[in-house]
Amino acid sequence: MSELTSQLIVDGAVPSDPTLSPDGRWVAYTIASVRRKGEHPSGAIWIAAADGSSPPKQLTAGTAKDSGPRWAPDSTSLFFGSDRMKRGNTQLHRIALDGGEAEALTTWKSGISAYLPLAGGGLVAVVAADENEPDDVKVWGQQVPHGRLRLLDLDTGEFGVMDGLGDRHVAELAQRPDGGPLAVLTWNAPDLDPVSFSCELHVVHLDTGKVRHLGRTASEASSPTWWNTGDGWRVCYLGLPGEVGGNAVFDEEHRSLTAGMNLCPFDLKQVADGRPLALFADGLDTAIHRLDPDTRRFQRIASLTGWATSLTVNHSGEAVAMLMSTPYEPANVYAGPPGGRLIRLSDTRPELREFRWGTQERLAYQASDGLDLDGLLILPVGRSRQDGPFPLITLVHGGPYDRHPDRFMLNPHPSGQWLATAGYAVFLPNPRGSMGHGHDFAAAVAGAVGMEEWTDILSGIDLLIAEGVADPDRLGIGGWSHGGFMAAWAVGQTDRFKAALMGAGISDWGMLLASGDLGTLDAGFSGSCGWEGPGPHRHDRLSPISYASKIQTPVLILHGEEDTNVPLSQATYFHRALRWFGVEHEFVVYPREGHPILERDHQLDMLERTRAWFGRRLGDPLKRDESPDGTASAR
């Protein structure tokens, strides 16, 4: 067997954005590098026969960022976005199925942000900002131009503007399956206004320009979808019942169609007969459901082992395609009938079959208050439980509304199999706040991050110690984003961990509200904004910075310099506190990087640095079984 290297991880390719042709014969998708080449990302458009009868074919060269394939209504050509004419400026292109040179359809100065080929084939609905020269003076509310709904005539190349939406930013579009009007989601600002963000739902009639306003949506609305109730067409969409919690599907009166379900919808697609399909996070697995127009409830039609996402449906609804991954297979494109066997169409990482992987186990256990929890355990490569106890690294997922599904755990951020190949056992918990167990489970962290979710994680660690899997003297913890917050929180609550990784983590919720992209939405997690009065404030009790004086654990801090989701100031504040109290730590800033780390050299550094950091403090299991102080282990 070959040795897994950080270079092999970051030099791979991944599929994304599959889309099934209306006639169900073809699936188009994007293949892009795991890492970014130089300054700009790149990607290529591929197609594959949906029945697997012929091998996939690359349609575009991949020398620019080609992405977002969308089928023409007659399934004979593909529309896609590309910055091949000017890096960073996306324009609409079209290419025939037999390949050849792609045709540029727009040269809009500000670029195209969204597009939807319309029934009939002569028009494309396009979202683009006005072509104004940028102003060097930044005036709040004016520095980011609003995306406006326009209709591109493919015969003349001319644009028509739909004016009925006023001064609102167009975010998402969906045409009624019978070729009728558009369902449109709009925002009050194009950049997620961090104080008073609002989303509204509209129906736009293309023939008259008339707009029917359906009012303000639930929080974080997405995926407008048409469905036929039996007495006419209506619109539904994904959103949050509150500021914090699991997703739900809402109708156009903004009533939940998934209330009471103990799983979480996250992908919603319309079908010509009016019965939408949806993917649901179901614990560690994924399920396909169909909306029943009589009961107005979703009914399960298939259970999928592991992780699936990016659902796409042909016009009739008789075929679906999506990305899927299982514990030892990376994400690939699959297709088939929605309730039947799905076949793999792409094979983007065949080189990974040369490696042995750590055994990945499903965990089911209870929290200290009796709540049922799940998670994953990855054992060191070539080892079994009987070979324990092992040094254990707990990796907490982001979000917190996310999850560790039972998928292949290998990516450029510190990941389960990367650490398992170095000899560590890895615990991947899904504490309350995670998706996959319904709204109430996810909403349990409202105003309470770091509380019960932290004890949920501890319950899993204690279980693994009791079962002889984890060595209590060699525990590490880490994560990215909210996982980075949990790592910073953990070391202020206990000295049980010998090493921690805080990746793009939150140290102060009040400062995050002041400077992060989401603003007051983050107050849903921390419980206060700071401007309610002189305090004390709820968010101070839930901020890791407040417990810096108690920290004894060495901490590796990693952060992107241009992160706007969790700004660099969060890491700098924690770093200064650790310096003040003399805590051993390392503070690493990656230039030009945002919330995810994308450049190849930075990804390599992150992988190698993380494994070395835990190795120095937990011992290197591959060299010898030794304690962190270098003395031989008694095992």
From TrEMBL:
Query: What positions does the domain Peptidase S9 prolyl oligopeptidase catalytic occupy?
Result: 417-619
Sorted alphabetically, which Pfam families does this protein's record hold? PD40 (PF07676), Peptidase_S9 (PF00326)
The organism of origin for this protein: Streptosporangium minutum
From the UniProt record, give one GO term of the biological process aspect.
proteolysis
SUPFAM superfamilies associated with the record: alpha/beta-Hydrolases, DPP6 N-terminal domain-like
Q: Which PANTHER family match?
A: DIPEPTIDYL PEPTIDASE FAMILY MEMBER 6 (PTHR42776:SF27), SERINE PEPTIDASE S9 FAMILY MEMBER (PTHR42776)
Q: What are the entry keywords?
A: Aminopeptidase, Hydrolase, Protease, Serine protease
Q: List, in alphabetical order, the Gene Ontology terms for molecular function in this entry.
A: aminopeptidase activity; serine-type endopeptidase activity
Q: Which segments carry the region annotation Disordered? A: 51-70
Annotated signal sequence is none
The protein depicted here goes by the name Dipeptidyl aminopeptidase
